[in-house]
Prior knowledge:
The protein is an alpha/beta fold. 30% of the residues lie in helices and 24% in strands.
Amino acid sequence: MDLxxxxxxxxxAGRDLLAEACTAYEEHTAIALGTRLRRRHPPDLVAAAMTxxxxxxxxxxxxxxxxxxxxxxRDGLEQATTGAxxxxxxxxxxxxxCRLDPPExxxxxxxxxxxxxxxxxxxxxxxxxxxxxxxxxxxxxAGVQVTGVDTDPLTVAIARANLAELDLxxxxxxxxADAREVDRAAYSAAVADPARRSLxxxxxxxxxxxxxxxxxxxxxxxxxxxxxxxxxxxxxxxAGVEAEWIxxxxxxxxxxxxxxxxxxxxxxxRRATVLPAGGVPAGEAGEWAGQTGGWxxxxxMTDADDPGAAPVSPxxxxxxxxxxxxxxxxxxxxxxxxxxxxxxxxxxAYLTSDQLVSTPFAxxxxxxxVLPYDLKxxxxxxxxxxxxxxxxxxxxxxVDPQTLRKRLGVRGPRAATVVVTRSEQGTLALLVxxxxx
Length: 437
């Protein structure tokens, strides 16, 4: 979809077409629907409407009901912050408002992206590489004065349209510019989401981000928050920066680097934040502000909570699998005292305990049987238990779960979970049952 086609989609006729496409769209009948719509509308406009219908269906998992009113590109949807995470981050920024200085006064003759109205008291944020507006929307809803910036004309148009569709155009604006050329003195702080996708797919090496990692390092010398991929190496995190890994419903979504007065805590370097599967409704972002004793604190662990070491023991009554954010943050040993547990192996992210403790930072499993990792022994055990539906988990071992299931040849009416992992007693196969959440 090019810029003119998107503009056509925003006309009354284009909106009528989009509404019809969204109402009738089903993946298995998409070809027939497109053929029918092209009899009455230009092919390019039908293609754009059909794409938006499909993307809105996919976006529902990230943005809930808002997705049905928003516009997307494929890459923009892939990189856009999940609504729950954006709401949480906006809440942190609102909470930091009292620590930030108001922006400098902008002279009338100043050119380039900057606040469009006279300076007001309170923090003003610039959202660099704002994309289709995920964080922009959450910040605006939280009452933050925010300007989005992106280099791509189509992306800028989509972000503006999304603000308008969600009745936020009066609270935020979007400018087309290179993030590296923005006068950041015009703002109290910056948030940034460097592009991590290219024509070849996802970019995992931060050196390939756009803008490049050198620009990220420059941002992090001031008051800033930069979103990165969860696999960012700890060695790349600059001194004095707080790195926060965030998961939603057990899935790690991103890492965020907090610098300057956007940091929280007393020198915390690593933080794991666990949000529930339902997340935080995007419209409630402002409710996070100032909740020092609230839910936000209960699902956050930092290196200050981590003793840095834990005992090691053979499997006990329960196995604990730490949340992915905890593992990425390197805070596995911080879970041990919460469950009165030990590590199965000094370098493996599994814990074991005789106690069943409910914690948002780990999933618990009852250990049913402890077996050596031997195919004949494991096959015999599974046959005796009439297991046919087998879930395989593994950590620290060269095992392909799908291949293992085939080699075991399980058949039967029952379900089971086997965890293959290293321990100080050797490689083990643990038969486990998930415990109620």
